[in-house]
Design goal:
With 367 residues, this protein is mainly alpha-helical. The protein has 2 domains: 148 residues, no CATH class; 180 residues, no CATH class. Helices cover 68% and strands 2% of the residues. A two-stranded antiparallel ribbon has the order 1-2.
Length: 367
């Protein structure tokens, strides 16, 4: 076995290990090559999207599907190159066509390797020794297995994406399409009656936990970014974290103690933070502030209290507690959201809706 063949076999084992860790072991950040490749492709696509100006968001929405295609091509090319390095020294001797001379160049080796890995197995070249026949058989098994695993993996990725979008849309509908947690809280307790709020919030816990685990199992979900901000992970987690924070800091502690201490409220808080932390650890960039703005928090809270009062909800405002709780999770939002190209106003539209006419540009710049 030549050095070239040893390198080729090692390259194939490296890519197979990467596929195993990404597809079968399926935990965020465990792949050997795929996480780095995906980050590189995302960085390139994000840089290219900047050339499209106002259509940048639309172009970024293509990044997820493109990264899926590029990852499959990356794995395929890696396996073919590895197999070609093993096959090339055997060309003309143990591996040759049915008639004519046998080219011994690397391009021919790539052709033979691709044919041996494919399901169809078409090609004029055939093995003529026990060792090369075994090699072709193993290549065929590897090609068939990898194709089956990748197709199954993609089905799971898109299933997770559908469930994530359904959860995001459900939460947006609960805000009346406003994206405002205060509106959601007011709808959970019409005229101050929160008797059904625990049940309604409890119905969100399971799909949120499934979404969190889907991102942990299938990191490709990180790169699916939609033009509509209602589907952004940073937006629907912001709404959930904001609504449970408002429950703690605006409702009367005696009258609504059961709701405030309920399992759904704490579960939504913890699971939303866990989802954000998963994205924050594994995204290609971790830029953004480490702390939120006090002025932004105060403005947002004042607007939320006003919304609840207009809806007939009796409030007991505690802005200090709100700012303290928000300060624990807001930095995660501020790091994750810009990574996928979302602005502060898209994630927290309450402040934009509450501004006087003509103030939007000034506040957007300040954000």
């Amino acid at each position: 076995m030549t050095l070239e063949q040893i390198i080729g076999a090692g390259l194939m084992l490296l890519f197979l290990a990467d596929i195993f860790l990404t597809v079968l072991y399926a935990r965020a950040g465990t792949g050997l090559l795929a996480p780095r490749w995906n980050r590189l492709m995302w960085a390139l696509l994000k840089a290219l999207s900047g050339l499209f100006g106002r259509r940048r968001g639309s172009m970024l929405s293509l990044a997820g599907p493109l990264i899926v295609i590029l990852l499959i091509l990356f794995w395929t090319f890696g396996l073919i190159v590895g197999a070609a390095l093993v096959i090339r020294p055997e060309l003309g001797a143990a591996i040759r066509p049915s008639n004519g001379d046998t080219p011994r160049d690397f391009v021919t080796a790539l052709l033979v390797a691709g044919n041996s890995l494919s399901i169809a197995g078409a090609g004029d070249y055939s093995p003529h020794t026990a060792g090369t026949r075994t090699l072709f058989l193993l290549n065929s098994v590897v090609g068939t297995s990898v194709l089956s695993l990748v197709l199954s993996y993609l089905v799971q990725v898109y299933s997770g994406l559908r469930e994530r979008n359904a959860l995001a849309l459900t939460i947006d509908l609960m805000t009346g399409g406003t994206g405002d947690a205060a509106e959601m809280l007011a709808r959970l307790g019409p005229d101050g009656d929160f008797s059904d709020a625990t049940t309604e919030l409890g119905n969100l816990v399971r799909p949120l936990a499934q979404t969190k685990e889907a991102h942990h199992f299938y990191p490709l979900l990180f790169y699916f970014r939609f033009k509509e901000p209602i589907y952004a992970v940073s937006r629907f987690t912001f709404i959930l974290l904001d609504v449970v924070t408002l429950i703690d800091t605006t409702l009367d502690r005696h009258e609504h103690k059961t709701l405030q201490r309920s399992a759904p409220v704490e579960s939504l808080r913890r699971c939303a933070v866990m989802l954000l932390e998963t994205l924050d650890r594994n995204f290609p960039t971790r830029d953004g502030p480490r702390a939120g703005s006090t002025a932004r928090s105060e403005e947002s809270y004042a607007l939320a209290v006003a919304t609840l009062r207009r809806a007939g909800v009796e409030v007991r405002p505690d802005p200090v507690s709100y700012a303290r709780q928000r300060g624990r999770w807001e930095p995660l939002i501020l790091r994750v959201a810009p990574t996928l190209g979302y602005g502060t106003d898209e994630i927290e539209p309450r402040r934009r809706r509450g501004r006087p006419a003509g103030a939007g540009a000034e506040h957007a710049t300040a954000s």
